[in-house]
Amino acid sequence: MTPSTSRGAIVVGASSGMGAAIVRRLVADGIEVVALDLAAAQWPAGLGATTGSIDVTDTEGVARAITDAAAHLAHLDIVVNCAGILGPVTPTLETDQETFSRIVGLNLGGAFAVTRAALAHLVPQGFGRIIHIASIAGKEGNPQMAAYSASKAGVIGMVKAIGREYAASGVTVNAIAPASIDTPLIQGMTAERREVQKSLIPMGRFGTAEEIAGLVAYIASPDSSFTTGFVFDASGGRATY
Ligand SMILES: NC(=O)c1ccc[n+]([C@@H]2O[C@H](COP(=O)([O-])OP(=O)(O)OC[C@H]3O[C@@H](n4cnc5c(N)ncnc54)[C@H](O)[C@@H]3O)[C@@H](O)[C@H]2O)c1
């Protein structure tokens, strides 16, 4: 099946950083967007999208929020999940089990909840694009970020599994694995840690949220029709695979 001429998208984790940039890019491309984030989110002005609340750790709430957002759109084609937290950057021996579970539960459990809710709407229509923001931390493992790295490695494994499972359905499931992108997430790191992160990038700079949004726009487009279960690189040359 081909996508409808008027495309619609839901962006989760959309009030900040990459999510907000992705909303702006999709809206600029003529796509109707519902932007979702935590109820407490401060929405930037002029986003051009309908906004609503979602907590990706609340599985039933995720299903409800995606259903409500889909009902609001003329047509749902694209679901992008940007919800995620870094958590404390601390030695493993100073990281308790509860912290590990909380970060993995939000970043990976949330990604699964959003994927399931999205598939329920997209598979019956025979077309769709599901895109997650994983991380290069999930490929390489960042020291002192065991929970974050594990959660993003989990997102990568999940996308490969579900992408293959639904490969014949017309719905593609992919991820992007960015290196450090200049958003509030890394602005919360110490200056020293940010320099370490930057030094790992051969281009010698952080990526921008707009660069990630451009890649999302491509993956979400009908042109990206033969790629699923894949992890796109956006790492300024850092990734070796
Ligand atoms: N910035 C980076 O360097 C970088 C690199 C690789 C991957 N990522 C990933 O990209 C994604 C976007 O991050 P960002 O850099 O734009 O950070 P950000 O902090 O600006 O945005 C994250 C968004 O997720 C939302 N969120 C957090 N918990 C949520 C929950 N329970 N339910 C719904 N929404 C929730 C936040 O409110 C926020 O709007 C994250 O998954 C992050 O792990 C970031």
Structure report:
This protein has a single domain (8-234), classed as NAD(P)-binding Rossmann-like Domain (Rossmann fold, 3-Layer(aba) Sandwich). The model has no long low-confidence stretch (mean pLDDT 96). The protein is globular and about 50 Å long. The longest helix has 26 residues, at 97-122. Helix content is 42%, strand content 15%. The two termini are 32 Å apart. Strands 3-2-1-4-5-6-7 form a 7-stranded parallel sheet, with helices on both faces. Helix 1 packs across helix 8 and helix 2 packs parallel to helix 3 (97-122). With 241 residues, it is of the alpha/beta class. The structure holds nicotinamide-adenine-dinucleotide. The site of nicotinamide-adenine-dinucleotide has 27 residues, from helix 1 and helix 6.
